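Page header: ASSEMBLY MODEL / two components / 226 residues total.
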Amino acid sequence: MAHLTPNRIVLDVLLAEVRGPERGGTCVFMGTVRNGPEESGVTEIEYSAYDAMAEAEIERMLGETEAQWPGVRVGLRHRVGRVPVGEASIAIVAAAPHRSEAFAACRHVIEEVKRRLPMWKKEYRIDGTTAWVDPSGKPVAHGP
Amino acid sequence: MPNVTVLFFARYAELAGCESTAVAVPSPATVADVVRRVRETVPGARALPDRPLAAINLRQVKLNAPVADGDQVALLPPVAGG
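Prediction written out in full:
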C-alpha cells in the first residue's frame, strides 16, 4: 500500500480501507494547505519525502497504533509534490468499536507524523519567493 | 574501511548541491564519523549542522550508531510532514 501520493486524496477510498461492521466510530483528520495571517502570501506547498523511509515509518506508526488500541483500523495518505492552498496534504482515518478509541488513535497518528515522518515542505508565495518551513511552521531559508 | 552511501534531502540537498554521495570511513565508524567526513569532502556540506538527524537503512538512529560497509546513511533536516 502506497501511503504517499502525488494525487488528490480521495476520502471515500481511505474510509473503505478501515470500515467494518464491528467498528461503530470513525474519526477523520484532514490537514489542508493554509494561507492564514501567520503566512506570507502562500499559494502552494511542495512536499518532499525520503520516500522509502516515509513509507516504512507510516507502516510502523499504523501498526503501533493498531496494537495500542485493539480493534482499531487506521488509514493514511500524504501528498507529495505541490499542493495548492485549500487542498488536503494529509488525511488520517481511524475506525474503532467506539468513538473514544477512534479519536485517540487518530490524534496519536497525526502527532507521530509531526514527530517522525521524514518529509519536508517548501512554501511557494504570491511574490515568487520560496522558503523551507521548519517544524515550528516558520520559514527557515528564502530563495527566488 | 566501510564504504557508505550518504543521502541528502530537502534543504540539505540544496546546501550539499547533490542528493547523494559515497564516502569511506575508517573502521569502526559511527554516523558522526560519516557526517564529519561528508562535511570535509562535499563543499556545500560544510553548511550542514554537525549534529543532524540521521537514519541508517530507513530507521532513525543516534549519531553514535555504528555504520557498516554498504549502509545507506540519510541526513535529515528537521521533519515537517502533515
